[in-house]
Predict the structure.
Amino acid sequence: IRLKLIDVFERRITLAPAGSRYVALSYVWGQCHVLRSTQSNREQLQQTGALDQLPPAAIVQDAMQLVKSIGERYLWVDSLCICQNDIREKSYYITRMDFIYSQALLTIVAASSTNAMDPLPGVQPNSRFPQRSEKIEGVRLVRRSTGLSDPLLASVYSSRAWTYQELILSKRCLVLMNQEAFLTC
């Protein structure tokens, strides 16, 4: 299937060439009102620089910056890459979530977020909680009080079936949390 993707360099939604590599974003929408693709704005969102004129949610902006910084061009985000008030289009893509997430080069998992206005931890300066470390005889040691998966399992992200599905379907996940980040393959 051909996907509409965010071109992070041209800052617009585009129908990507077949076989294009892309990164997907998995996050909790929450109850906030953020930019979404609709029948009334989808043409505008396809114009170069549209995402400067109509800025997306903070988490999407941070994901765009991260995708650009790792040298990739395309990002898939459900709220912008699926027209939210076009029932046929929405139904079409909802039944293809397995394809969308399994074919992504990487899925960015915003595990600490509770809504789309939360920043993506670690992308912007001071957006991650400081981690205590000690230097002993030239070696920097970091104390961990829990296993890597403990904060993920306790998060709002893990309580949602929709985001759980995205995590399970993805081949590679960059899980970003307030105090840590890890990659699963």
